[in-house]
Design goal:
single chain, about 65% helix, alpha+beta, two-stranded antiparallel sheet, 5-stranded mixed beta sheet, about 325 residues
């Protein structure tokens, strides 16, 4: 038996014994007084009746008061217990939320650590790529000297040389990942020429060569940006469009300018991007392609942010998707 239960038992026993003693004394004393005060049996019976009723009323009132006090105590205790339970429940909810937040933070930290290691590894690979590119450049230079100037092969060697120069720029960017921040050199140049040259270069890509790609006429537009980075971003968007339309699809490149920005739009007549995926389409490692890395559009987004521009997604008038590079104009 618990100590509190033993105390309650003793209190109840003392109360019962006290009540019995009190009632016994009352009956004995009141009977003696009644016998001494009158010799009339009828009067004695009347006195006993009044005395009994008075006794019942008084004890009933006392019991009512006692029970009321006890019930109030029980109600107060129940209320206190319920409040304590609610408080405990709230604390458990807070603890659960804190635990979930801690787990989310751990996941985020783990993800950042993984990406930091990936960045270091990427910088290391870029260093090795740069060494290999040096060999390739020398070999291309030797081939150009040995081929006659009228050779049709020179055209493809020039494409190869130009593509490898862009690879060298990309490798340089990768080497910068491990540093505190990436800074792109910017200059003023004519955007239309860059768009035309990039589209012409990209026609030789295996996935783009089967598509009908063309450029809408546009006016001369000067921008202040990094030409090599913009070119790589546009190549990514064109190849992405080619993946969407598969073979014999239509890709259209448009160029406009307004409100201090130039806009290079890449349209396709593919299935488009479902609305529920618009928010994640530029996130790293998010892809629907079977062999995709999920880094192409993420890289475009990061590059445009660093160039104080943006990349936008919309529905195309051709029926597919429209990706747009937003580039600051040269003021």
């Amino acid at each position: 038996m618990k100590p509190s239960a033993g105390k309650n038992l003793k209190r109840a026993l003392y109360f019962s014994l006290g009540y019995i003693v009190f009632c016994s004394l009352y009956i004995w004393l009141s009977g003696r007084i009644a016998r001494l005060s009158t010799a009339n049996v009828e009067l004695l019976a009347h006195i006993e009746l009044v005395k009994g009723i008075a006794f019942i009323l008084s004890t009933g009132i006392l019991l009512f008061i006692y029970m009321l006090v006890q019930l109030n105590k029980i109600t107060t205790q129940k209320t206190t217990i319920n409040l304590q339970r609610e408080t405990i429940g709230q604390k458990e909810t807070v603890i659960q939320k804190q635990s979930e937040t801690i787990n989310e933070h751990r996941k985020i930290v783990s993800d950042y650590e993984r990406r930091a290691l990936a960045g270091i590894y990427a910088a290391s690979i870029a260093h090795d790529i740069n060494n290999l590119l040096t060999i390739c450049f020398h070999s291309i230079s030797e081939l150009k000297e040995r081929l006659p100037s009228s050779s049709g092969s020179l055209k493809f060697l020039n494409y190869l040389d130009s593509s490898m120069q862009r690879m060298e720029t990309s490798a340089k960017t990768l080497r910068e990942i491990g540093k505190k921040e990436i800074n792109y050199d910017v200059s003023v140049f004519e955007l239309g020429k860059l768009v035309r040259d990039t589209v012409e270069l990209t026609r030789n890509h295996k996935r783009v060569s089967t598509c009908d790609i063309h450029i809408e006429p546009f006016q001369k537009i000067l921008v202040k940006s990094n030409a090599a980075v913009l070119e790589q971003c546009l190549i990514n968007l064109i190849i992405n469009a080619a993946d969407a339309v598969k073979q014999e699809g239509v890709i259209e490149v448009r160029l406009t300018a307004k409100d201090g920005f130039a806009f290079v739009e890449v349209h396709d007549d593919g299935p488009g991007v479902p609305l529920h995926k618009w928010r994640t389409v530029f996130e790293a490692y998010v892809t629907d392609k079977e062999h995709g890395s999920g880094l192409g559009l993420a890289g475009v987004k990061m590059s445009m942010d660093l160039l104080h521009g943006d990349v936008l997604l919309d529905n195309s008038s051709l029926g597919g998707a429209q990706f747009t590079l937003k580039i600051p104009l040269a003021m």
